[in-house]
Amino acid sequence: MCRLFGFRSSVPSQVHSSLVAAENALLAQSARHPDGWGVAFYVNDYPHLFRSHVKALEDRLFRDVSGVVSTYTLVAHVRRATVGEVGLLNCHPFQYGNWVFAHNGEIAGFSQDPAVREAALAEVDERFRKYIMGQTDSEICFYAFLSRVARTYDDVHQKGLDVEKVSDALRRTVESMQHLGLRLAGWDGRLTFLVTNGNLMLATRNGRELHYSTYKTLCPERETCAAYDPARCETEVKDGIVKHLLLTSEPIKNPNVWTELKDGEAVGVNWGMRFKRWTVD
């Protein structure tokens, strides 16, 4: 089991509170998830990725990175190893070009049955297999997802990808990994995914908890932020333009209003910050 955090905003913002300062920030959560961490934040169109196999609580680099980041898009992860040894190559998030991916859970039977790994690897197109460097099922899920995106778009890094087509690729990746788990291990696994290319951001819950927030009870920057809009910053938007989207395994104790997703549900924003919540099934 791991812990995820995702952030997408219409204005560059710091996330020090969610990563470090809040009572149950990701740093504090690493006490129970000690097997490495990763932070990917975007500068212009591409992510800067920092990863370590050291517990975040004991790694000054985590605090240093979290303290200076101001960005439109960020993904962070703390790991409790269930598949693959504790090591740098097995730390999330995983990156390919402008894509970043993190996972909480496991493909059913992946650790116990080599046939499950082979079946999962078969979901990855040949062009992507050489980029799989670690031992985790998560990395295989990432490239299985990218394989599906690449069947729709010749260039997976181009701007303006249609969020519906990308979300369909994520949905079909979940379905295929669930089906092979049921077929080979007798259960459908835990596949809570978070993915972004710096513009769109999508997440889906399956078997591991996931919460999202698009507004605050009272924005602490309401007097100083030029982008402040009470209709979006302090009001729920169910299907429309939002100022930010936060995703987390555990609700962070801060002014954000959190909503828990149900299994089989997904949320996301497109490049224009249009928010949508839907059922994956």
Helix share bin: 25-40%
The best one-word shape is globular
Give the strand order, joined by hyphens, for the main sheet.
Answer: 3-2-4-1-11-9-12
**Main beta sheet strand tally, sense and closure:** 7 strands, antiparallel
Poorly predicted segments: none
Q: Please tally the β strands and state the result.
A: 14
Structural class of the secondary elements? alpha+beta
Count of individual helical segments: 8
In whole angstroms, how far apart are the ends? 23 Å
Beta-strand level of the residues, as a percent range?
25-35%
Overall pLDDT: 93
| Rg for CA atoms | 18 Å
Order of helices and strands: EHHEEHEEEHHHHEEEHEEEEE
Detailed description of the structure:
26% of the residues lie in helices and 28% in strands. It is of the alpha+beta class and 281 residues long. A seven-stranded antiparallel beta sheet has the order 3-2-4-1-11-9-12. Strand 2 and strand 3 form a beta hairpin. It is globular, with a radius of gyration of 18 Å.
